[in-house]
Write a structure and sequence with these properties.
Layout lengths: L15 H27 L2 H12 L4 E4 L3 H13 L10 E2 L17 E4 L3 H6 L2 H4 L4 E4 L4 E3 L10 H18 L17 H10 L9 H22 L9 E4 L2 E4 L1 H8 L7 H7 L3 H10 L6 H10 L1
Parallel strand pairs: 1-3, 1-4, 2-3
Antiparallel strand pairs: 4-5, 6-7
Helix pairs in contact: 1-3, 1-8, 2-6, 6-8, 9-10
Length: 301
């Protein structure tokens, strides 16, 4: 008789599958940060923040550049900045040109068009879609939609900008954004000179300092969003009865979220009307059964 003894490796030693998983995660993280640095190099911080909060209010965004890598990187970066929220609607990193009618869809959507700004203007896409925001990545410009709901987020954008603009402008695209009319945006001669140096097309190579700064920008935006959204929510969700159903009492939730800053009450009221935030609340708070379900359970008993 022969006995085969299989010795278990020490616990400190990773299995092959675990080690491979760690390598994959590191590679995926590196690619995500690389993508973020590409987007940060083409849009100033004011525009990044505006697009983030416009996305939170479920505004349709269209990114435009003939460079597919930059197109995908910018879209995925912005969606990643939403954490702890998750975008619940459609995302098309490259829209087929035979279905441009999708721009006028009644639901929010994030779209990439692999064309130039001149092509978009020739097709009159901006004029024909007034409720859509266009992001021209090669020019580093944002064409706002006709909706004014984004103005509700200005106090938050202002706070985020003041906390992050020194870190952002040190390594990424500084300068004038769609908020150039506000006094709080840094318009110093030094910053304008940096903008001239860093504008235009860049190499896809990313330095270690840019990667580190990209991580810090992403982490700080995510942490601030989580503090604003999660830190202000009550432990038990306020509810009300509507059409024989339990629903969230959005007025009480908006009051709780804006307790520390009353100027944000309108923004949180608008946020609570979005499918994205309602889905987040449903995950955070267990949704109780409908009254009809409760009645049926009572009858069966």
């Amino acid at each position: 008789f022969f006995f085969l003894m299989i010795r278990r490796p020490p616990r400190s030693t990773q299995s092959r599958s675990s080690a491979a998983s760690d390598v994959y995660k590191r590679q995926h993280l590196h690619k995500s940060i690389w993508a973020a640095t590409q987007a940060f190099h083409h849009l100033p911080l004011g525009d990044i923040l505006w697009l983030l909060f416009a996305l939170m209010l479920e505004t349709t965004l269209v990114f435009v550049t003939p460079r597919m890598t930059l197109l995908s990187a910018s879209i995925l970066t912005l969606l990643g900045l939403l954490r702890p929220l998750r975008w619940p609607h459609a995302v098309l990193c490259s829209l087929p040109l035979d279905i441009l009618d999708l721009l006028s869809a009644p639901v929010p959507i994030v779209i990439g068009i692999a064309q130039t700004r001149e092509w978009v203007e020739e097709k009159q896409l901006i004029e024909n879609n007034p409720n859509v925001t266009f992001v021209f990545l090669d020019e580093g410009k944002v064409q706002c939609s006709g909706s004014s709901s984004w103005e509700l987020a200005i106090p938050l954008i202002k706070t985020f900008y003041k906390d992050l603009h020194h870190l952002y402008n040190e390594h990424f695209r500084p300068g004038t954004s769609i908020f150039h009319m506000f006094e709080w945006e840094d318009q110093s001669p030094e910053l304008k000179n940096q903008q001239k140096v860093r504008s235009g097309r860049r190499s896809s190579r990313v330095t270690d300092d840019e990667l580190i700064s990209g991580v810090r920008v992403i982490e700080q935006i995510n942490a601030r969003l989580e503090t604003i959204l999660v830190g202000s929510l009550p432990e038990t969700a306020p509810r009300k009865v509507e059409d024989n159903r339990y629903t969230f009492d959005t007025e009480k939730l908006a009051a709780a979220l804006s307790e520390n800053n009353k100027s944000l009450h309108g923004f949180f009221q608008a946020l609570l009307k979005t499918q994205m935030f309602i889905s987040y609340l449903e995950e955070r708070y267990e949704e109780p059964p409908h009254f009809s379900d409760l009645s049926l359970i009572h009858i069966i008993r």
